[in-house]
Design brief:
The chain is an alpha+beta fold. The chain is built from 14 helices and 13 strands.
Length: about 300
C-alpha cells in the first residue's frame, strides 16, 4: 500500500477529492499535494511563518530556501539555463485583476481550461488556467490580515473558487470560512474595491498549479504586495494602466491617497500624474470625484486575465 492508497482509505472526503485530482494533474505529484495540504490546512500558521511572524520561520524559511536552491542547482547541472528556472515567486503569485474582470471570474458558470498563458501570467508554473466547478464559492478569513495584531477590517475577504479547494476549506476551517453565493462574492469585491483594496487572482504550484482564489489585498497587510515592493516579483500587472484626463482632473489628490501601489502623484490644483509602477488595478477610478481616470490596455503590462476573451 502506497501513500496515495493510505490517503484514499483514511483521509476525509475533501482530502481524498484533492488527492485524486493531484494524481491526475500533469505537473502535480505527492510533494505538491503534501505542500498544498499543509498550506491550506494550516494557512494562518503557514502565512505567519512565511512573513517571519512565527518562531518556526527561523527553521522553516532557511530550509525551504536551501531546498529550493538545490533544485535550481540540479536543473542547471541538467543543462537548463538559470533564466528558464522557476523562482520562489513562480511558486506562489498573483495577477492584479480590475473589478470588472474579477466579476467575470466569479460569474463563470462553466468549466474552463486555457493553455499557454505566458503573456497573461508570466510565471514558469502557471501555464494553464483551470476553473472546475466554479459555481462553488467560499470566503475565508484573510491569513495575511490575521497575521498582524493590528490589521485591516473586515477579515472575511479571501474568495476561494472551485473544487476541490472550496470543499477542503469548508471542512477544515468551519469557524473561519463559509459558503457564499456569486452575488455575495460580487458584493465583497465591490466593497473591498471601495476601501482601496486590490483584487488579485492567486495561483500556486502546490494548489495543482491552478487559479484557486481571489484575495482582496491591502498594501499594509498583504504578504505578496510587501514582497513585490521588496524586489520579489510575486504580482503581475493587470495588463492595464491608469490614464488621467487633464481637462477633467481638478487636482484633489484623492486618487493618490487611495492608490495601493503609490503610483499616482498629485499636487493640489494640478493634474495628477501616473508613475511607471502602476499595476492597473483600477482602485483609483472609483475614488475620483470627476471621472478623470480610466484604465487603458498596455502591452508592456501583459495581457488581462479575462476569462471570456481567453476561453473564446
Amino acid at each position: 500500500m502506497n501513500v496515495w492508497d493510505v490517503i484514499e482509505r483514511f483521509a476525509g472526503q475533501s482530502t481524498r477529492a484533492w488527492a485524486r485530482e493531484a494524481r491526475q494533474a500533469p505537473n502535480a505529484g505527492l510533494w505538491e499535494f503534501m505542500h498544498g495540504y499543509v498550506y491550506t490546512r494550516w494557512p494562518y500558521l503557514y502565512i505567519r511563518t512565511a512573513m517571519g511572524r512565527h518562531p518556526l520561520a527561523l527553521l522553516v524559511v532557511p530550509f525551504y530556501l536551501g531546498w529550493h536552491g538545490l533544485r535550481r542547482l540540479g536543473a542547471c547541472l541538467r543543462g537548463k539555463h538559470p533564466s528558464d528556472l522557476p523562482t520562489f515567486a513562480d511558486g506562489y503569485h498573483g495577477k492584479v485583476v480590475p473589478l470588472d474582470k474579477a466579476r467575470k471570474l466569479i460569474a463563470v458558470n462553466r468549466d474552463i481550461h486555457v493553455n499557454d498563458l505566458e503573456q497573461v501570467i508570466p510565471y514558469a508554473s502557471a501555464r494553464t488556467l483551470v476553473l472546475q466547478n466554479a459555481e462553488h464559492l467560499a470566503v475565508l478569513d484573510c491569513p495575511c490580515r490575521l497575521s498582524r495584531e493590528e490589521h485591516c477590517t473586515p477579515v472575511d475577504v479571501c474568495l476561494i473558487v472551485g473544487q476541490p479547494f472550496v470543499g477542503f476549506v469548508l471542512e477544515h476551517h468551519p469557524a473561519k470560512s463559509r459558503r457564499i453565493t456569486a452575488a455575495e462574492a460580487m458584493d465583497i469585491l465591490e466593497q473591498e474595491n471601495k476601501r482601496g483594496h486590490v483584487a488579485h487572482a492567486f495561483f500556486k504550484d502546490a494548489m495543482l498549479g491552478r487559479f484557486y482564489a481571489i484575495c482582496n489585498c491591502c498594501s499594509c497587510c498583504c504578504g505578496a504586495m510587501k514582497a513585490t515592493r521588496n524586489g520579489l516579483p510575486m504580482l503581475a500587472p493587470s495588463g492595464y494602466v491608469a490614464v488621467v484626463d487633464g481637462a477633467v482632473c481638478v487636482g484633489c489628490g484623492k486618487c493618490a491617497k487611495i492608490c495601493p501601489f503609490d503610483a499616482l502623484n498629485a499636487v493640489p490644483k494640478e493634474t495628477a500624474r501616473v508613475g511607471d509602477n502602476c499595476m492597473g488595478c483600477g482602485v483609483c477610478l472609483h475614488a475620483c470625484p470627476t471621472g478623470a481616470l480610466s484604465l487603458v490596455p498596455d502591452p508592456s503590462k501583459g495581457q488581462p486575465l479575462d476569462v471570456d476573451a481567453l476561453a473564446d
